[in-house]
Design goal:
Order of helices and strands: EEEEEEEEEHEE
Largest sheet: 7 strands, mixed
Structural class: mainly beta
Radius of gyration: 13 Å
Distance between the termini: 39 Å
């Protein structure tokens, strides 16, 4: 099991930027795909972005393409989500996720999540 710890959430006005971080540890931390899933108030968890184990391939939900960038520091087993042009619809708890494949992260159900997640609030 991979342990995940998120950080970096906060409050920002529409159009602003935030960067989330997720530190991974444990077996498979360096070989699993990693990504982000979010849960907006009153909604189910939804895929946001994922990156493969080597950091060479990225995947995004249509709703965040062109605004969010996922990256990975393989030496530190840390994944980042740079969020720009934030909108109120991006308000959610963001969870870091780990899975042997990015398809698993996109599936959302059954994925290994981080702990409490980190709250992102975007005001209009």
């Amino acid at each position: 099991q991979v342990q995940l710890v998120e950080s970096g959430g906060g409050f920002v006005q529409a159009g602003g930027s935030l960067r989330l971080s997720c530190a991974a540890s444990g077996r498979a931390a360096s070989t699993n795909a990693m990504g982000w899933i979010r849960q907006a108030p009153g909604k189910e968890r939804a895929f946001v972005a994922a990156i493969n184990w080597s950091g060479t391939t990225t995947y995004y939900a249509d709703s965040v393409k062109g605004r969010f960038t996922i990256s990975r520091d393989t030496a530190q087993n840390t994944v980042y989500l740079q969020m720009s042009s934030l909108q109120p619809a991006d308000t959610a708890i963001y969870y870091c996720a780990s899975d042997p494949t990015w398809v698993g992260i996109r599936r959302v159900v059954g994925v290994n999540y981080g702990g409490k997640g980190t709250l992102v609030t975007v005001s209009s």
